[in-house]
Amino acid sequence: MKEFHSFRLDTVNHCLWHGEDRVSLTPKAFDVLRYLVEHADRLVTQDEILGALWPETYVNPEVIKKYVLGIRKALGDRHEKPEFIETFPRRGYQFVATVSEGIGTPSDASINGARKMVGRETAMAQLDGYLTHALKGQRQIIFVTGEAGVGKTTLVDEFHQMATRHPNLRVVRGQCVEGFGGKEAYYPVLEALGQWVRDSGGGSVVHTLAKQAPTWLVQFHSLIKAEQREALQKEILGATRERMVREICEALESLTAQDPLVLVLEDLHWVDPSTLDFISALSRRRGPAKLLVLGTYRPADVIISQSPLKALKQDLVLHSLSHEISLERLDESEVSDFLAFKFVDADFPSRFVNLIYRRSGGNPLFMITILQDMVKKGLIAQADGRWTLGVALEDVEPSVPETLDQLIEMQFQQLSAVEQLILRSASVAGERFSVWAISTAAEIDPGSIEDACDGLSERLQFIQAAGIHELANGQISAHYDFRHSLYREVLYRRLSEVIRSRLHLQLAQRLKAFCEPGELELASELALHFEGGHDYKQAIRYLILASENAAGRFAYRDSLEILRHALELALKLSPALRDELEIQVLESIGDAHFALGALVQSAQAYTTAAERARQAGLKTAQLHALTSAMYPMGFIDPDQGIATVEEALKVSMSVNDPTRLAGTQMLAAGCRLVFDAWSQTDANLYTSSCETLLRHSGLDAYQRIVYAHILVLKGNYHEALESCEGSVSRMGHGMSLMAYYGALSAKTSALLLMGQLGKALQITQAGRASPDENLARYWLLSFREAWLRTVAFDFEGARRICQGSGKVGGEYPDSQGETIDQMAAGYIALYGGKYGRAIEHFRKVLNPAVRTKFFRHWWWRLMARLESINTWLMSGDLSRAGTAADSFLESALSTADPHLQTLAWDLKTRVAMAKNDFKGARESIQQALGIVDKFEIVVAAWQGYATAWQLYQRLNEHKTARMNRERAETYIFKIANSFAPDEPLRATFLAAPPVRRVLCEKTVNKATR
Ligand SMILES: Nc1ncnc2c1ncn2[C@@H]1O[C@H](COP(=O)(O)OP(=O)(O)O)[C@@H](O)[C@H]1O
Ligand SMILES: [Mg+2]
Question: Looking at the whole model, is its pTM more than 0.70?
Fold first, then answer.
């Protein structure tokens, strides 16, 4: 802690204190000041500062000048006779005040002179007590509540001061913002965290976030390097709200295991829903954390806005997970104390205190405003070094308005026309505004605006200087804060509708320059101003961007909220403008629902978008919406999905665009192949349209995924996995989430058939274990795991999963789960020798009347046919098995799936063996093994070699037999060793009778020991 005059430079928390006041400095301005103070003994050149603080970027030296100007303003330094920073023209700067190493307590002078808080002893004692608990590792969640101006921020500032005296304690603060702030997911949390990340200069905070909270680190675009961002982006694909919340809780717990943290979240009555999720989760976790969260809010505003904060706080307090400190107005004796502090050695009439108390009702902000007003009017003045009242007490009362709003209004009337103009624009711009932002609206040059603002700030009226900040376009501009949000609110409310909307529009147009494509940070602020300016078309555009922002923070509910609002605004547009935007909004709604796993709603939104586009004759939009609809429908109603792509195909025939046509053709053929049936015609159509696309534009993320599925059906697993990888690296938001799920689906299927069961299991278990709001993913991964378990002979496990997924699925049809369940039940019966029952189960899968279509359903039906024939064979019904095996082979050969084909030849071999037709058996097994040589079909391979082993044994060709047994064993271990050593499925698989039979005793002992 460095001290100079009555200032203290807190280098741990990166803030400057003046007595008990925090001086508002931007992080860069703080760095400049710190650099000067730390080199106070000498002249520092501009180049030196640039080199030290902007090492990698080119910065105009003028910028330093601006920052120094801002710092001097904040320190109250005078130009003619500088007390703090002296300028040596063209050479540099020197810090000239005496600097001492402080111990971190305010000097005596500030206690008397600048101390400003009266009363609140109980509240401070409570906070101190909570802090003691927090320092011991018991997390504390505290709400400070009370009306506007009652002193919440003042109390928090005082506590902030007190808390920083604990060594290594850090305080970070985030502020909720009215209007657009409530639509920005995690707004105050990101602010607080961003400050911390910046202050720590990429140190331990970034390290912890990178390790434990990548979904958060990635939010700080400007602070991470491009290649790190790319890696993070990949890592967090398909993350969910739950994951994001969990990550930040865990990261905060790690970060506060050693050093304590106070997280201040101000003005939660304007909070966004995601921040509330975060507070709720953080409060309910139990592990140790030296963490104190301090939130402030106005209860009345929470009720008006119907924010869920009220219910959350009640619930937390009820369960003793948080505490509330409710601030009341000051009582008369505290008002008296205040007057004594403020006007040292005053000579006021005895009833003056009572008068101020009565008129202000004990609201500190009202009280201070009254007193400042009186000082300004000369009603309170210093005479002979003593403060006195210049009018009769009776005359004071009538001159003070009834309410604070009226008093503010009155003060406003007394300002000059220019000042009024500036403040009016500022009230539209927000609680913190830049000179740059309001300079067009006010139609005054920036220099004069700054002068006027400085004047107001010096007279303690309405606003205060907030330093020089860099704007998103690299320009720097002076910023100001309203002294209290109430000032802004009053000014904004009194604007006429016409002026208000003009100012919003001007501001929006000014800010728009910042919102470059890809630069989404200002989207919701811009949307707010365009809406305020009645430019609904632009407002909707920016709302769509804002919803993408929310999606980037996995806050899909917030996304939906924003999009619904956009739809409401669309109603105000003329029909010609409306259609196109409405379709876009509906598509985004479809994306958000999909991301939430609300498949029916997702499909509905896309279909509505498509219908709207059809009516408006917007074919490209219609095509896009129909294509999007396919994916959720693939889950809930593939027939409908196929019908939808057929419709898309019709539309694309009428659009003269060969690439688009090829894309739709490819999708249509692909969907029929995956969801309906395998046909050579479709397979050819698929290949030819795919080639056309590759020649023209290449495949997009979505097309690559469908491509991957087709590759899996053809047994080209490695290529399929590559296609998934390529797709994943091309993803952003929205549609890409579908592609991501598609990638998971294709990837797990490929891994499964190539015998990488362990790897596939890792994917499914990671997805199923975490509490996840996304039903679609839960489903997808459940089915895949159930399939996997049937391959590993854990039939009971497969059934458990299938039966559980039905409950989760609820409203949706569950044919995939039922099918795998029946298959597993069939296997149990088959291996238990209950052939009649086994046939019954397989028949249920085969019955076309009761089964709707689902992912690879035709493949499962072929599997059911295969296992029925196996059952007949095992039960000795040779004649039936014989004819059926022939026709099954024919079916399998009409597909392109080497797995099925191998199993078909294998079956035929066993039938031939049973009939003692060894010539036929020899031929068949060679066919089977020929396929195995060409594809990595590990699951089919071990079975084929096991059959070959038995065949050659029967033929007394022992050497060949042994070789085949060893091959089978190798494949079996490939599967078994893909599991982690302690994964129970490994043992289950190795112990399954058909597997065990293949392994020789020695290996069994070794493997199961
Ligand atoms: N306990 C107090 N003693 C002296 N002044 C106070 C006190 N509480 C608030 N004030 C003054 O009232 C003004 C409004 O208080 P603030 O803390 O901003 O209110 P809130 O955050 O509750 O809206 C501040 O400028 C501060 O100077
Ligand atoms: Mg406040």
Answer: yes
